[in-house]
Amino acid sequence: MASSLLSPSFTSFLSTKKDLSLSNFSSQRCLKAVPRRIRCAVAAPQRQPSTTGSVRTAMTMTEKIMARASEKAQLSPGDNVWVNVDILMTHDVCGPGSFGIFKREFGQNAKVWDREKVVIIPDHYIFTSDERANRNVDILRDFCHEQNIKYFYDIKDLSNFKANPDYKGVCHVALAQEGHCRPGEVLLGTDSHTCTAGAFGQFATGIGNTDAGFVLGTGKLLLKVILCFTKVYDVVVTILCFFLL
């Protein structure tokens, strides 16, 4: 059972209201201060055993998702587990490096663990005449053709910043729009913003090229179960309301 990081009573950082004086640009008739309190504390979620259902030990949503993905009955913060990855996303920035590591470690003729669980989207190095940037996108195309990747959302530059109508755009938006963000699953991506997919009730996080290369070959990754926090803020907010005379 996780213990609270702070005492049960919330810690107040600002406990007194601060009087505001008028500035040189304010008028006595149009300035109004409205004090408001918000509490702040940081605490790990309290756990109570379940009395119904098959799960007898309470877990956070993240722990439940990772328990399913690791085929474990129970997980706690700090546990290191091998999880089965549901979706791996990469793009034109990290894709070439990830593919290189995959081929170096698993062989030049190796095949990805599941061609339908790899999503590849060029969205960073596009609409440019830079040869190295265009080469990155070409590497994605070659790899997807070689591996017969099902979900490759290619782009065709039609000049004047226009693309093919079926291009999906930014990878994080495309993941959701194309149905790759599903509740209860594990989604990993070679981009720090991958965690935004957690809004769809899944565990999503960014990883590096080395990790992505390993996932391409095995469909698994060693992850640490994170500690979840509850945050409540306690401050005094002063709102200045200016009214037209």
UniProtKB/TrEMBL annotation:
It comes from the Eukaryota. Pfam families: Aconitase. The keyword ATP-binding does not apply. InterPro entries: Acnase/IPM_dHydase_lsu_aba_1/3 (IPR015931), Acoase/IPM_deHydtase_lsu_aba (IPR001030), Aconitase_4Fe-4S_dom (IPR036008), IPM_dehydratase_rel_enz (IPR050067). Gene3D superfamilies: Aconitase, domain 3. Keywords: Iron, Iron-sulfur, Lyase, Metal-binding. The keyword Acyltransferase does not apply. GO terms for molecular function: iron-sulfur cluster binding; lyase activity; metal ion binding. Residues 76-225 form the Aconitase/3-isopropylmalate dehydratase large subunit alpha/beta/alpha domain. One of its GO terms (biological process) is oxoacid metabolic process. This is 3-isopropylmalate dehydratase large subunit, chloroplastic. It comes from Mucuna pruriens. The lineage of its organism: Eukaryota, Viridiplantae, Streptophyta, Embryophyta, Tracheophyta.
